[in-house]
Design a protein that fits this description.
Largest sheet: 4 strands, parallel
Distance between the termini: 30 Å
Helix content: 40-55%
Radius of gyration: 20 Å
Low-confidence stretches: 326-344
Strand content: 5-15%
Structural class: alpha/beta
Shape: globular
Mean pLDDT: 93
Number of strands: 8
């Protein structure tokens, strides 16, 4: 009997202080995230950098309660998505797997196999494609499928990117308008879209579409916002000494302060769930930086998490690829999604 399932993919994050160093090791051991000229040094590099960064990272996680809420939020998104699909007549399981922390992709696909899934719709919770996020997870899935003949019998429908999904765009625009309306002078607020950065070489040498998709995403959202405010796109969370996508968020904040901006609204554009980059890097580090730069009113758009319109957008993405009988598929199918196995 044919049976569909949905797999939500995310980065993962340490849930306790003890998890921080092994999580960082898993992160930096991935050659798709940090590319070294000598691959045989990857594990040694991961051990060294995770050991050196562990104490600072523990302090950062301590500042947001001790650990990452990403697993909990992603599980909530999965439950809401499953309920949405069931209400429309699609009785399918929705699984959650993380790239660098539990529940790891490797263990979740074994459960998927045990459950008798015959078609798996893979939906990374990264709206914009990058070889360092979606690409890394897809590469791991390719390896697991190649090594296991039973997994190879499960058809994978992989959604590469969905930055242009209408309900996602609408949900982001609505959240921005709601925050703007809370300022004393909404028309004077500068809106700063802050995306997670990647090394510039990924774009210029490896052809990563991330920057292009990010810029297109911001244009779509801003058109929906429909306000005359000035807005800027910048990139945060860079690691190491190599050149990353620019402009860097912290430098933009300082420049805006020097230009006399007093009201700033930060939009975490590449994040659909609250985690360390929103709760600590933006809410604490960048807020302090903004205040030192003379920006008196600093606010952030909350991540979408389980926003009903956003969840409806996720359902619209996966619904056309489900085998389970149900209601007719929606008219919208993103350009990045085909009818079978999708790769970049």
């Amino acid at each position: 009997m044919s049976k569909s399932g949905v797999l939500l993919l995310n980065l993962g994050g340490p849930e306790t202080q003890a998890d921080v160093q092994p999580f960082l090791y898993n992160l930096f051991a991935d050659p798709e995230l940090i590319r070294l000229p000598f691959p045989f040094l990857q594990r040694a590099f991961a051990w060294a950098i995770s050991t050196l960064r562990a104490e600072k990272s523990r302090r950062n996680y301590a500042a947001i309660g001790g650990g990452s809420p990403l697993r909990r939020i992603t599980a909530e998104q999965a439950r809401e998505l499953q309920a949405h699909l069931v209400a429309e007549g699609y009785d399918v399981p929705v699984y959650v797997a993380m790239r660098y922390w539990h529940p790891l992709i490797e263990s979740v696909v074994q459960q998927i196999k045990s459950d008798g899934i015959t078609r798996l719709v893979v939906l990374p919770l990264y709206p914009q494609y990058s070889i360092s996020t979606t690409g890394s997870s897809f590469k791991l899935l390719d390896r697991l499928w190649a090594e296991d003949p039973e997994l190879a019998c499960i058809e994978r429908c992989q959604i590469c990117s969905w930055y242009d999904q209408p309900q996602y765009v609408q949900a982001m625009a609505r959240a921005i308008r709601e925050q703007l309306d809370g300022f004393a002078e909404p028309e004077g607020v500068h809106v700063l879209f802050s995306a997670h950065g990647i090394p510039e070489s990924y774009v210029t040498e490896a052809g990563d579409p991330y920057q292009r998709e990010m810029e297109a995403c911001v244009r779509l959202i801003w058109k929906q916002v429909g306000r005359p405010n000035d807005h800027t796109l910048s990139y945060q969370s860079r690691v190491g000494s190599v050149r990353w996508l620019q402009p860097y968020t912290e430098r933009v904040i300082l420049e805006l302060g020097s230009q006399g901006v007093k009201q700033l609204l930060v939009v975490p554009i590449s994040f659909v769930s609250e985690h360390i980059e929103t709760l600590q890097e933006i809410d604490i580090e960048y807020r302090e930086l903004a205040h030192r730069a003379g920006i008196a009113d600093f606010r952030r758009v909350p991540a979408l998490n389980t926003d009903p319109l956003f969840i409806a957008g996720l359902a619209a993405l996966v619904r056309p690829h489900l085998l389970t009988p149900g209601l007719a598929a929606p008219a919208f199918v993103p350009a990045a999604v085909g009818s079978s196995l999708l790769e970049r």
